[in-house]
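[09:14] KT: can someone run the structure on this one? pasting the chain below
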Amino acid sequence: MLVKIEDIKIKKRVRKDLGDLTALKESIRMYGLMNPITLNSNYELVAGERRLEAAKMLGWERINANILDSTVDSVRQLEMELEENNQRKEFTDEELLEGYKKLERLRNPPLIMRILRFIANCFISLAEWIRSLFKK
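[09:31] RB: done, structure tokens below
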């Protein structure tokens, strides 16, 4: 659900230091908000303060949010805040290296793959052109 950022209330939070938001802001600018923030039914922030602050830095007026049911009590909300920040696991060096290698292969496929892709696109264009002739 899209929510006006100005309507979101930030109460006392466990995390005091949001850290450097530059990389997160750039990620959101390039790819959008991949994970919505979480609010309670009173539009009080439960999870996603760093994402919210990055969106503000980008000048957003609205942000995608999950709204909790009004039956979720303050104990459960605090558990959710702690859980979201505690259960993250960074990539290992090996995982990160493999991911970037795969990205490089996708960005720069071998010559034979580029040729095959070109030929396939030619056939697709030809089929669409033939189909358009029969629609007239």
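[09:33] KT: thanks! Helices lie at 22-31, 49-57, 74-86, 93-107, 111-135.
[09:34] RB: yep, looked fine to me
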